[in-house]
Design a protein that fits this description.
The chain is of the alpha/beta class. It is built from twelve helices and 20 strands. Strands 4-3-5-6-7-8-9-14-13 form a nine-stranded mixed sheet, with helices on both faces. Helix 5 (104-120) crosses helix 6, helix 8 (182-194) packs parallel to helix 9 and helix 9 (216-226) crosses helix 10 (340-349). The radius of gyration is 22 Å and the shape is globular. The structure holds 5'-O-[hydroxy(phenylacetyl)phosphoryl]adenosine. Pfam families: AMP-binding, AMP-binding_C_2.
């Protein structure tokens, strides 16, 4: 079923007409209401009226996370404080947090887009949705909450943490849909097993997982362990929160972007030039309808590919390939580029290893070194030392063979890697510590 058939199945020419109309209005709005954008437009000798086609978007200035930080907390808002009904913020690992605001209409639109997302994932008003995304300044909890209510589903606002209690609630309430990070889904499953509960036996049928990169191998692993369909949901606080893109359960082949609200481009991260569909680059998003903090060509740093081919679910909204990494997360180990997700794929395909891992990056002299700490399962752990060593060398060899990089592999005892209730910390970077 499709939540908003009119918008989600528009012929692309119709969709593009709506996008252009909204883009023109957006340019007027930011030029007149956000001094930062007026300055940027003026520097380029650009007036809002110069935008006459969608391809003119390439003339517009980019916006970076740093621009939001420079205007901390509310300097990029396009409306007065009276019109703001909600604030969210993303913590960020370095520098100041970025702060975003929402008007009443922004919150309504977000709820509608999340309801759309739930339906694309195969959920309906008949479902009970266990929402384990964190409630608070993080957009995951409240974003999914409002969407679940807009869908008409019974919403269970659990937030993150108290994992044993979550397992009990899943069982007692019989929730049919769960929302959390993919790494937390694995932790829930592990905890359930310790409690003697098999999630496969519960009524749970769909998981809506996002907020961190995960691979298709991880998806299949989660689906097998929990006996559910695992759907990838994407979003970021600066643009709205969860619900910018979601896979449909019919195809599970790329995330449909909510293009009537977001104009999405993929650019070459080095040159900033737009790339055609099918080519991989950085996702750049212009918010077409946001009132409180509209952003022009926001550089997400997330790497993906766009696909405008029709989908078997009937939606005409373009799809983006799952985001398996951010350009900031790319490690350069002795001149070779590696993404954590590439290591994840190898780990999951290796018998005896669990999906719990952490990458340690250190600098010795001028040389960066990578250590892959990965947990083994119980049966491997009790095996002879020489078999453990053999497994270590095998993973090391596969990493060298498939990724061309030399990494040290360290097998860790079961539960040796810290569990997280939200975004997993996959990389420990000690390069600037000494
Ligand atoms: O993580 C919003 C969200 C909440 C999305 C719940 C999905 C579910 P931020 O904390 O601002 O917002 O982090 C945004 O997380 O730029 C990506 O790098 C990463 N990310 C989010 N979803 C995915 C995903 C929320 N499905 C940043 N796959 C983004 C890969 C993702 N990375």
């Amino acid at each position: 079923m499709i939540f908003d058939v009119d918008m989600e199945t528009l012929p692309r020419e119709e969709l593009e007409k709506i996008q252009l109309k909204r883009l023109k209005a957006l340019c007027e709005r930011v030029y007149n209401n956000v001094p930062f954008y007026k300055k940027r437009f003026d520097e380029k000798g650009l007036k809002p009226g110069d935008i006459t086609s969608l391809s003119d978007v390439k003339h517009l200035p980019f916006t970076e996370k740093q621009d939001l930080r420079n205007h901390y907390p509310f300097g990029m808002f396009a409306v007065s404080r009276d019109n703001i009904v909600r604030i969210h913020s993303s913590s960020g690992t370095t520098g100041k947090a970025t702060v975003v605001g929402y008007t009443k209409r922004d919150i309504e639109n977000w709820g509608q887009l999340m309801a759309r997302s739930f339906m694309a994932a195969g959920a309906s008003a008949k479902d009970m949705i266990h929402n384990a995304y964190g409630y608070g300044l993080f957009t995951g909890g409240l974003g999914a909450h409002y969407g679940s209510e807009a869908l008409g589903a019974a919403t269970v606002p659990v937030s993150g943490g108290a994992t044993r209690r979550q397992v009990m609630l899943l069982k007692d309430f019989g929730s049919t849909v769960i929302c959390c990070t993919p790494s937390y889904a694995l932790f829930l499953d592990e905890t359930a097993r310790e409690m003697g509960i098999d999630i496969k036996e519960l009524p749970l049928k769909v998981g809506i997982f996002g907020a961190e990169p995960w691979t298709d191998e991880m998806r299949r692993d989660i689906e097998k362990r929990l006996g559910i369909t695992a759907i990838d949901i994407y979003g970021l606080s600066e643009i709205m929160g969860p619900g910018v893109g979601i896979e449909c359960h019919e195809a599970q082949d790329g995330l449909h972007l909510m293009e009537d609200h977001f104009l999405c481009e993929v650019i070459d991260p080095e040159s900033g030039e737009p790339l055609p569909p099918g080519e991989t680059g950085e996702l750049v998003i212009t918010t077409l309808t946001k009132e409180a903090i509209p952003l022009i060509r926001y550089r997400t740093r997330d790497l993906t590919t766009l696909n405008t081919a029709p989908c078997k679910c009937g939606r005409t909204l373009a799809r983006m390939q799952r985001v398996t990494g951010r350009s900031d997360d790319m490690l350069i180990i002795r001149g070779v580029n590696v993404f954590p997700s590439q290591i994840e794929s190898i780990i999951i395909e290796t018998e005896g290893l669990t999906p719990h891992y952490q990458l340690l990056v250190e600098r010795h002299g001028n040389m960066d070194t990578l250590t892959v700490n990965v947990e083994v399962n119980e049966s491997v752990f009790s095996d002879e030392i020489k078999n453990l060593q053999r497994l270590e060398s095998k993973v090391q060899k596969n990493i060298k063979e498939f990724l061309g990089v030399t990494a040290k592999v360290k097998l860790v005892e079961p539960k040796g890697i810290e569990r997280s209730v939200g975004k997993a910390k996959r990389i420990v970077d000690l390069r600037n510590e000494s």
